[in-house]
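Why does residue order matter? Because the sequence determines the fold. Keep that principle in mind as you read this record.
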Amino acid sequence: MTNNTLNNALDTWQAKDMALPDLNGKFIADIAKLGINLNAESSLRFCQALLWADANLDGYKLIESHSKLPEWWSERGNKLFVPIDFSGDTLPSIAFHSGLPFPENATVFLNNRHDYSILLWGSHSLVYISPTARIPSGHLAVGNAFAFVGPDVRSTARLNINCRNSGAIILTKDILIGSDVKFQSDDCHAIISLSSNKRINPFGGIIIVKNHVWFGERALILGDSYVSDNCVIGASAFIRGALTPSNSILAGAPARVTRTDVTWDSRDLAPDDAMFS
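Structure:
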């Protein structure tokens, strides 16, 4: 799938979803109330993610200082929000990417857990981790980009999110992720055509995973990919530039649809159990 094809599909979904002006207006008002400075594209992506995930920005407070925050954090206009009931002495590790520009004007929403790490660089990065997300030993590397880990996104271990170059990675809600799964917006390095002397691989891609998706361990999802609702992604699957049909199973490298007309259940049901009780 080309980037234009994905963008056209996204435009269609966004036009449909953003036709809810009252809800969209609330998100914009919440962003303004929290004093978050986002450009128009980031605001749209954030509102879109909140809408898809049935999430909101109620119940957060700004942490202006904390013993676990690095010294450069507040000096460069970065903002950290945590749930109002946050009272922990410990934060996830927050660091900057050595050799790249220091993080400036980043906005980070954390939950009450601290068993993951965040690496930032560049300007105006936005990271949201839902209060009900569970990503033990997870690692998020975000530079000039947007990463959203929504409600009930739960990983077995070592979820890896790498988002850069104005890209976006949105994991909406109710997503089950096996160990060592990686989401990466682009390749981190340029592949250059000798004839045109221009980059030919994607730059700043978008990954969107809709609701109720199950990823097998070691799956790799690269930029310009959209995984629809109720899908199952096989272990070690490789997805790039794909628009997957809903209610389908995908497996292989590159991943292909192996079955449709399915859903999945986190319970280990026996064959004779009622599926939709």
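DSSP finds four helices and 21 strands in the chain.
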